[in-house]
């Protein structure tokens, strides 16, 4: 099975390439700039059609949450127009598209984990463009699987885990917000979820479960608790650690509002595909161990 994934350097893209290496029946081709540029729709169909995949994974996106407030046109071009063009190219080939979305489509003021049918009410430009991108994908290709995820980290790129470890190298304490709750999610686990979906679709030509699903790490925590877990793992492996000082979101103002409740329910995905991500603590520990091992050479 040949999978084309958009982007080359993203956390999910790099994780998907790595995990596919352990699945010999999966061949992943990463398409990014210059041959595929989401801000230039003229490149999208040409690159995807030329690759002739069996499934397209729409992973690349504009993800600078605060910067999006100053660049709404660019965020829209990539997350809405670009995403729609990717889904449309897959439709032209008569194949499914797996599109990645985000918890930011929700307002974040609920008290329970969000399910797929809950009201969407983005609070910023990034969340709005990702929601509009979902609509664009749905319109462009009826054979769509939209995976909403959250709090993504991995051994690759920039993310919260790597930031905490870096800060601990030079600080005795780190201030982290304690009133935002969510599901820390390893990009490696997202890659495994994508592969599960791809295998399912490849084995079931009459699949009737196209739609929106949530894929996040199992279990939830606030950001300060997540930081403490990172430092606990790091300390266990002889890496840097720091004390965590709890602060409120109001004490750490950002241009774009963050959801206070980013928790997502993954029951629908489990019911459809029989797969659930590991407990977030397990995947976090695995990532920290790998990062420290790499740092030690």
How are the elements arranged and paired?
Layout lengths: L1 E5 L4 H10 L6 E5 L9 H11 L3 E4 L13 H22 L3 E6 L22 H16 L3 E6 L2 E2 L6 H9 L4 E5 L3 E2 L2 E2 H17 L7 E4 L6 E2 H14 L6 E5 L19 H7 L6 H16 L2
Parallel strand pairs: 1-2, 1-3, 3-4, 4-5, 5-10, 6-9, 7-12
Antiparallel strand pairs: 8-11
Helix pairs in contact: 1-6, 2-3, 3-4, 5-7, 7-9
Number of domains: 1
| Binned strand content | 15-25%
Query: Which parts are unreliable, with pLDDT below 50 for 5 consecutive residues or more?
Result: none
CATH class: Alpha Beta
> Per CATH, which architecture?
3-Layer(aba) Sandwich
Mean pLDDT: 96
- Name the structural class: alpha/beta
Characterize the main sheet: 6 strands, parallel
Along the chain, the helix and strand elements come as: EHEHEHEHEEHEEEHEEHEHH
CATH homology-level superfamily: NAD(P)-binding Rossmann-like Domain
Helix content class: 40-55%
* Spatial arrangement of strands, main beta sheet: 2-1-3-4-5-10
What sort of overall outline do the alpha carbons produce when their principal axes are compared? Answer: globular
CATH topology heading: Rossmann fold
Cofactor: Mg(2+)
Pathway: Carbohydrate biosynthesis; dTDP-L-rhamnose biosynthesis
Domain RmlD-like substrate binding: 1-291
GO molecular function: dTDP-4-dehydrorhamnose reductase activity
